[in-house]
Queue: 3 jobs
Job 1
Amino acid sequence: MGLPTPVPDNPLKWDGWKNFNSPNPYERLCLDFDSHPHSGQIEDNCRQLLMWWQKKLPLKNQPSNPMAQILRLGLDEAPARLAEARTLLLDESKRAQIDAGLVAKAKENALAEFQKFLSFALTSGALTAEEEESLYVTGKNLGLQQSEMEEIIEAGLQKSGARRLPKFVPQPPPVAPAPAAAAPVAAGGFSPQNPREEFLRMLRLSGIDEITDDQRDAFCNMGEAIGLSGGDAEDIIDEYLEERMIASASVHQVSAKAPPKPVAPVRPAAPKVSIFSNSPLIRSQERENYPGFTNSLGMSMMLVTSGSFLMGSAEPDATPNEQPVTKTNLSAFHLSRLPVTNAQYEQFDPSHRAKRAPWADDQHPVIYVSAQEAARFCDWLGTRERRRYRLPSEAEWEYAARGTDGRIFPWGQTLQSGDLANFADANTRFPWADQSVDDGFAETSPVGSYPKGVSPFGIEDMAGNVWEWCLDGMIPYPGKERTNPRGPTDGPKRIYRGGSWKSRIGSLRTTARSFNTPNYSANDVGFRVLCEIVPKG
């Protein structure tokens, strides 16, 4: 939901202008609550949005203009609503109240979603042990506590009059089993990791022959909750309805000839569905349970909440190694707001001072550090602080740089000014340098020199200045959904990301990949550190 750079002048090309009237102050300023924006981001977004609306004010005198009709409410109200959002978010106490309200709303939505799943489970008038187990999995992935789910289920049983059924225990097959076609029952033995079979099983347990539009939407939500796409869920619902129709026709045909033989119902054991969870409530709980911190070296460690994103790029300027685009799920972690500096690294290796570039002081990013040396620094820091430090995986790095909205650069879609990143500009003499931009530096810049280039999670310098080592070796993307992926760490090609002061603009894209040998070091390669989160309890 970030503010695009630049902001499109035409409102038909950008829906963000409609947020001015949102009850959520973050949304009004095109900010994300999960990304804990700092005061500079709040000020800058408010300024840009006010300027956008200021340019539209002459339309108030042109009531017949189609654009004036589209924007008419905002022309009167937007400036005041934007200024109000800025004031609220810059006030620490008021912002804390807003945050608490958003967390409460996320909890309310999670409870309502769980209640929806429970209502469908009780449609048949009975709740099997397998269905109840699936409900607990669903609730956990919504961010609910066990005690909360138990209370809701008990209340639902009492209100509906439904009864609990004992866990189904498969019986040995009879000597002469009835033909499989005698009843449309679910086939057993499917993989616990197969959401398609689990969703079909849930539909069969409902016993519904006709589905209304509202019920179809609710079932699709259930399918998406266990890992299916909306289209896949729709297809499976249609398959189920066709199955029910065929079964109904078969029953009518059999009853016209002779009474059917009774067939004992067969219920497969409910699979333990493993679902990646990053609901709004879970992300809110992560913010509460694992806030950012400052470590013993003065590094500001920012929380990157759990999430799913499309890794890689299908844009025309993307290279083949950025494809195929791959859905990737990541658990929460802490990442240093800035790259490791000379002063910080030299507490680990004082001899490195002799390798400093002539222009670099304590606050410049450390360079001439190989991936192997960076990994040893992480091990040293972890021992020092009794935390789990390491280099970020390539997936974690890209997610922290671009968030979930598919942005090209950490700050947005374009790079048109020198206050966003340090790259090959008018201060350099490289043939590929962009002479139209002046970023203020001919070599590396002190870390944190470009606060406007911040990523969606409040992390700076993820484009330009120095390439940053990652944990992974270079391997192709699989094209299939994956969770918390890690590439090999012992291969000949180690990934680094982000571009540097020597790089052309294309290398600063969040999806651009490059690599070198693990023992390689240069005057434009550094790193930042990740601290793993150890779940409470």
Job 2
Amino acid sequence: MTERKRIGLREVRALLPGETVYDSAVPGFGARRQKGAVNYVLRYRTASNRQRWHTIGRHGAPWTPDTARDEARRLLGMVATGADPAAAKREAREAVTMAALCDQYWEDVTSGRLLTRTGRAKKASTLESDKGRIERHIKPLLGRIAVAAVTRQDAESFMHAVAEGKSSARARTGKTRGLSNVRGGRGAATRTMGLLGAILTYAMDRGLRADNPVHRVRKFAENKRERRLSNNEYAALGRALQQAHSISIWPPAVNAILFLALTGWRSGEALALRFDQVDQATRTAILGDTKTGRSVRPLSRATCELLCNQARDATGKLVFPPTRGEGIMAGFRSIWNRIIRLGGLPADVTPHVLRHSFASLAADIGYSEPTIAALMGHKGHSITSRYVHSADVVLLAAADAVAERTAQLMGCAVQGVAAGLPQAAG
């Protein structure tokens, strides 16, 4: 029969390798030396009469004979109510972590098995942003937590940590000499919380948890950009484009900026535009894969002439090709920044500002929201919109009017805009 004695420091120090001593005061509580270290253990039987071994912890702070004995008493109390501490510990150890969940989510979303609310796979640009938020914010701050253990407090603390820059870092992007400076901030926190909510909804769909704690967190208000160009800024942009042509900045990039000003398109849509998507006879562009799906866009006469005058590169596919290669123009943003500096424009003038300015000009002229939405490619909600293949005369007239007003503000003759070479107003 195994000798039982009240375990104290003397008994712990006297243990030889492989020896176990059991406590006389708490049934099943013992100390065992293995590989030089002493662990406090608890042996008990479950409600189904199965014997279990549970390791309380290694001798040393915080575990002493007295604190380990108190913990053994607490665990035995749980066993008396039907709990199984050893099984619970094993389940926690084997539980899916947030890092593993993110990896599963990423595999499904990139393979196209996970669709958005509109029934489409996420676009490559969205996936690139999501990947950055997962690797630079979610995994570093939440990766080790079990999916089932994430609470509303965890989600709220995560949001504030991102907002306060606690996940800020400099990281390589994978591109040659590519370096990303992750700063965090409230905007990054709000957008990352949206992705975290989607990942935890994915966890619910797979039975890994019953609720989504992100839904109960009050997020920072998004500062939606309402920035539009003033008349003076339009004129400055026109002068900058004229100067850019004169100093031989890559012409397709300069003309792409002019195209954005005339159409209000998203920059990604313009840079991906192919000649085979443009029908000059009907003055229509049909885009099959935009942020809102298939989109039919009316083109002003000035825009069509700009496209006609745009020289084709060796591949003859992209309207605004890169300096080399066949992909989308990777250096557009740096060229944009250079032209903004040429015009003396503020740093907050982004390509998206041109889109908002186009919509604002259309509203100034008096066009309705549905007309402006159709000009800019917002999602159409009618059944017949799926089958439209060309723009109607009303939309073409609206496109002409907004493009003409844009040209006036930029100090360009419409013919000068059409040729892709802004001319100073006489």
Job 3
Amino acid sequence: SLAKEYLNNPELTEEKFISNPYQTVEQEKLGFNNRLYKTGDLVRLNRDNDLEYIGRRDFQVKIRGYRVELGEIESVLLSINEVEQVIVIVDDNDRLVAYYQSNEKIDESIIRDRLVESLPEYMVPSHVQYLDRFPLNNSGKIDRNKLPKIGLDKSDNYQGPKSELEVSLVNIVSDLLSLEKDTVSVNDDLFYLGLDSIKSIQLSNMIRSDMSTYIAVRDIFDYKTIRNISEKISKINKDKVIMKEEGLLSGEIPLSNIQKYFFHNIKTGNFKTPNIFNQQFTLKTKNNINIDKLTKALHQLVSLHDAFRINFKIKNSTDITQYYNTNLTDEINLKTILIF
């Protein structure tokens, strides 16, 4: 991730990769360890001869594991003609927030489109705030500590949920993003509210868990608002076909890719002792167990879960058949169980 940012950029490479003053003569002869990368971290050497971290020299930050140069985001925003000055920070919630100064407030859709067009998703600020002027300190420099905090008040175009589905989605989103429920509009761009790629995965899982509906993470990125996601889920539920349980499954089952891989490695001799892939365990109990009740319980368990009845017929290394065994009595042999 580091090198590609300097590829075909000799000036930046020369600036960040400097000659190593600590290179030894032997290293110089061997031709390695001749350069250092300027990370931008400020450190000092303490009395124990250890490097002590102080802060950042520049404003390179780490967002969700990615190194982000805030100046790159600022450059994109400054490319909008109406924007006069820009500052991008990371707020207390680890979200990118952009502040811009201009003669008048710019339509957020214009700013959003420019950011999405020019930057990867993880570098797009969650919030863009208009300021008529930036706060200054006594030296006349911008005072970052006095920049207004991004509030969680209702947006100007707030619209509350109208359906039970939208109410459920508002509850899930507000819990996920730690927002007050009455501040989340069904028309809000969720990525402006603080959603990101990781939280999108969590949102997809929460929807599946709480609403028994699967919606892809890609759909969350595409539809963005609770209203649009709600309409997508409604369409999914409308098109959903509920399969009725038909009793015990029977017949052959095609081998999965991982099973084909497994048997191929047995055939080629890569897995010399395939039996080590078996899983077994022993249960030790304090009292004797009623074998009849245990047998009945295990038969019921096997009848409810078809995967427990999968057997293999192996004639040779290339002729392998996987099938459902419909004879439940063949599946459970409690004579091999030892009661301690």
